[in-house]
Amino acid sequence: MSVPIPASADSVLAAKGSSFHWARHGLSAVYAQRATRLYRLCRHIDDLADESSSPAEAQQALFEVAASIRGGQSDDPVLQDGLALMRECDMDAAVFLDLIAGVQSDLQPVRMPDLDALLRYCYQVAGTVGLMMCKVLDTDARAAFPHAMDLGMAMQLTNICRDIAADAKLDRRYLPATLVGHLSPAQLLHPTATESLAVRSCVARLLDCADTYYQSGELGLSYLPLRARAGMLVAARIYHAIGTQLRAQADGIRSTRVVVTPWRKAAVTAQTLGTLPFNRFFWQAPAGHDARLHWALSRSPTFSAVSFLRYGT
Fold first, then answer.
1. How far is 163 from 175, CA to CA, in rounded Å?
2. How far, in Å, CA of 55 to CA of 63, rounded?
3. How many CB atoms lie within 10 A of CB 26?
4. Domains identified in the chain and CATH numbers
5. Cα 238 from Cα 49, distance rounded (Å)
6. DSSP SS3 for 256
7. Could you give the percent of the chain with pLDDT greater than 90?
8. C-alpha to C-alpha distance for 291 and 312, rounded to whole angstroms
9. pTM
10. What is the average pLDDT across 117-127?
11. Count of H helices and E strands in the chain?
12. In 3-state terms, what secondary structure has residue 2?
């Protein structure tokens, strides 16, 4: 059955989420359409924070979005479609509100103190998206949720390692002070040799951390409908390839964005699909989730994400 994808949603995904646009073809028509609409909704929230003329304007816009999510109605066409998608997939509004809270935290100068704080941020802005993707893919098994969260967090860690310079220009330093010291965003843009070495070491550490979360994310594949598993695995592997390229860079800070070229995406896709018959966890559920991956979330007295309390381990 052909399920039309809204042209505006498809154009947003193609322009700003090329890896997901590629991997979407591994989903059934219904799941591809829903995933594209979800991406547009989440991107809309990001853009409100990053493209507003002032932090105050962005804060007000996000406040209004949160009110629309709570009230279930909006005059904004993107939010109208997003609310319809949430009803269609029975999404918990608390998950989306935690995403908004994470995006709102970006409106203040970002100086991440330690890895645990970074992981909590990654949950808010990306682990929540993993939970929403479960609903998009008709997955209600509670055992699937922690793995979905981990895949989102892994991708966000990759983003942070890739976008150091771009984030610094927005007065944001996501690299934990415990790993790079209290470098300012300006120092990240013009680091000394010693500072560059510290940044490169930090990136390596964060990519190692991301690898652990990617592995956990892949362990949850069998909870998904069969028509969704290949597409999600390809998306994860392509995003992981960004980290592989970052590891090969001589400098941890890039002024241009690292991208996976179409031929590399094709190679990753072919390799991923070719090994599916031998991928145990594509077919079989894991024994359980490694609770240590969520210690930073579950053991923090200051972390109050309602969605994690409901869906985390």
1. 11
2. 12
3. 20
4. 7-311 (1.10.600.10)
5. 26
6. coil
7. 77
8. 9
9. 0.93
10. 97
11. 18, 2
12. coil
